[in-house]
Every structure is written in structure tokens, then in C-alpha cells.
Amino acid sequence: MRISKRKYPWIGEQTWTDTLFLHWPVPVDIIRQYVPSSFEIDTFKGTAWISIVVFNAKKSLIRGMPAFTSFPTVTQINMRTYVYHPDCSERGVYFISLRVNNLLAAIGAQKLFGLPFYRVTNIFKQINSTFFVTSWTEEINKFSLQYTPEDITINDKLAQFLTERYCIWNIHRNQMIKIPIRHSHWNLRKVQVKVLENKLLPFTNESNFIAHYCGYKHALLYPYETYNWK
User: Fold this and answer.
1) Closest among 67, 75, 58, 55 to 186, alpha carbons compared
2) How far apart are alpha carbons 154 and 172 in whole angstroms?
3) Would you tell me which of 56, 136, 210, 222 could form a disulfide with 180, CB atoms 3.0–4.6 Å apart?
4) What does each C-alpha distance from 91 to 61, 148, 150 come to in angstroms?
5) Is 126 in a helix, a strand, or coil?
């Protein structure tokens, strides 16, 4: 469900490029340990899902500011699952972690929204039509893959469930918050992926995922909304 109207006016914008989605089916009881009990786990035909999403965040601007004030490009690798709040019909995502290669971006998002951002080393490069991504920390929590998009579109019910999400749920400063975003529907394509190393999700393996790719998406960012704690 894409929301066309929000409670507050949008305050920022951002462009996402070369987005890769990797999705693993996971039992609900495994997901439950990562998600606060106030949120319900969203499932597709009774199965919970956890995802790794890789993209470059570009042209990050505060509304009304000129282009030259844009924040530098940041490569983000996030782990998320799918949740909803009992008092709100809008289903969204819950972030388990967000890894970025910029300390200021990590600190800013932690302070503003309480999101679990971490400064890591992310290397993103493109050779011809193939993208190569490597991420690691001092603890050797490494993630590495390569992916090559194809010219085959994807638009099934499961893909919509996993990608058409327009808010982030979180707990921040002892409040339950919803962080709204808005953008056009995802134009998903098939993508060939080779996971070289995955120490981010030890309970998944390197072969039972499904993958989607989108080359470009422009998003509007909104102030968060608060909800009653339960």
C-alpha cells in the first residue's frame, strides 16, 4: 500500500541507485528475537522474511536547499524485516542494522531517529554491467557479493510484499515512531547474484534467497510520527 498523503510535509529527499534486494524466508520465532514485542511480525502466507538491501544513497538534500549542499554519496547495506503496529494499518519495515561508510551519516541517523546505524567499511564498484560489494568491520563481520542485473521485469505478489513498503517502524526516546517515506512503485528486475561471504545473517545460507534489482529511485523523507507504547 503506497501512501499518497502524509501527516506532515516532507523535509528531505534522496536518490537511491543500483538497489539490490536479497530476501530469505525465516521462521517467525527467529525473527521475533530481533523485533520489539510491541510490533507484530508481518508474514506472507505464514512465512516471515528477512532482507539485506544494498544501494547508493545520492543527492541527499534538506528541502529547499540548493544542490551543492547535498550530502556525499553513501553506500548503505541494511538488514530488515517486515512488521506492523496494531494501532496503524500501514505495514512497514524494522531495521536490524544499517551499515554505512560515513561516520557523520551514522551518527546523524542514530540521533534523529534512533536507528541502528553503524560506521563500517563499504566498498562498491562497477565493472561493465556487474557490481561488486564488500563490507566489513574490525570484528571481521564481513559481507561480500557480486550482482548483474537482467532486462527481465518482476511484478509478483511476493515481490510487492517485500519491497512496496513506505514507512520504517522503530522505538526512539521511549516512544514508538513511524518514519514515513514516499516514492513511486518499484520497477523491479531480475538479477544474478553470487554471495561470496555472508556473516551478517548466520541463520541464512547462500542459496535459498530471492533477489530483485532497481536501478534508480527518488524518495521523499518525512518527519516521524509517534504512537502509544504497548
Assistant:
1) 55
2) 35
3) 222
4) 26, 30, 29
5) strand
d(CA 171, CA 176) in angstroms, rounded, equals: 5
Q: Which of 217, 218, 213 has its CA nearest to residue 129?
A: 213
pLDDT tens column, 58-111 = 999 999 999 889 888 999 999 999 999 888 889 999 999 999 998 887 787 788
Cell 507504547, located at residue = 229
CB-CB contact of 197 with 205 (8 Å) = no
* Cα–Cα dist 9/85, whole Å: 22
Grid coordinates representing 115 are: 536507528
pTM of the model: 0.93
Locate cell 543527492: which residue?
Answer: 59
CA distance 130 to 147: 6
Distance CA 86, CA 77 (A): 28
Contact 56, 16 (CB under 8 A): yes
